[in-house]
Design goal:
Blueprint (H helix, E strand, L loop, with lengths): L9 E2 L2 H11 L9 E10 L3 E7 L10 E2 L2 E3 L11 E2 L3 H8 L3 H19 L4 E2 L12 H11 L5 H8 L2 E3 L4 E7 L8 E9 L13 E7 L1 H9 L7 H10 L5 H6 L6 E2 L2 E5 L2 E5 L2
Helix pairs in contact: 2-3, 6-7
Length: 273
């Protein structure tokens, strides 16, 4: 499902409108959201890395999104080598427990590597891997995707430390209760490390692109690309910045946003705070 949330919201299709009324009346229980992480990779321009989800995907099919995905149970493994703000500090930022925060940060770094080839980790707390191309890196990436390799074992096997200091907290979005698949997603921003480059690694995406935020918004307005509300809103915020440093220096207060279904003049609409 693709829509924009502006003004008085977006009119819901009949099926979702009926589900919304059932949920509001207490006849149907909403699906619990799964913890997830999304990372906005930025480079000078400023530009952001976007990937288009395959049309066969069960969630956000055909939408242009940032890299990200659900937290894996093993992402909370305390054996992950760590540098930068602690899980407790991240928990304070995202209003989450230390365990959940650890999982969110690990999922952010892991999913970014899986979906773009970019790895926010290095051999020590002050450095970052310079290159993640090559058959051995690709083998590890695929093993992470099929879950035959845990993130902790991946880092340990290469003698790497997760660099949580390379992540900037950005936002917190929760999928509306009317959806059948729901995610409790924390958004991060991160600069593309020197020497590394994104690449089309396939998987859940069938197309990738670097775009200036304003350009992506224009394409969405023209109907050329589809954006989900969190992506659209994030791009709108980023479009106000002239360079990467401006993005990194912005002070962010993380407040959960969950669009809700409301009835307006007899019509069910989805609106955001």
């Amino acid at each position: 499902m693709v829509f924009y949330v502006t003004g008085t919201g977006f009119p819901l299709p009949a099926e979702l409108a009926a589900r919304a009324r059932d949920i509001l009346a207490g006849r149907v229980e909403p699906v619990p959201p799964r913890d997830a992480a999304t990372v906005v990779i930025v480079r000078e321009g400023p530009e952001v890395y976007l990937l288009r989800r395959k049309s066969t995907m069960a969630f956000a099919a055909g939408a242009y999104v940032f890299p990200g995905g659900s937290v894996d149970a093993r992402d909370t493994d305390q054996a992950v080598a760590w540098a930068g703000p602690s899980p407790a500090e991240w928990g304070a930022v995202f209003h989450a427990s230390e365990e959940v925060a650890r999982g969110l940060v690990c999922a952010a770094v892991r999913e970014t590597f899986e979906e773009s080839g970019v790895l926010l980790a290095g051999p020590d707390p002050e450095s970052v891997v310079a290159d993640t191309t090559g058959d051995d890196w690709e083998s590890d990436r695929l093993a992470l995707i099929d879950r035959s390799l845990s993130f902790a074992d991946f880092l340990a096997g290469r003698g790497l430390v997760l660099r949580s200091d390379l992540l900037k907290p950005w936002a917190h979005w929760i999928t509306p209760e009317i959806e059948h698949r729901r995610f409790d997603t924390r958004f991060f921003a991160a600069v593309l490390p020197d020497g590394q480059r994104t690449r089309d690694v396939g998987g859940e995406a069938d197309q990738v692109a670097w775009k200036r935020p304003a350009e992506a918004l224009d394409l969405a307005h023209q109907g050329e690309i589809f954006l989900m509300p969190p992506t659209y809103h994030t791009l709108s915020e980023l479009a106000a910045h002239d360079d990467v440093q401006s993005i990194l220096s912005e002070r962010r207060e993380i407040v959960a946003i969950m669009p809700r279904a409301v009835e307006i003049e007899g019509e069910m609409r989805l609106v955001a705070p």
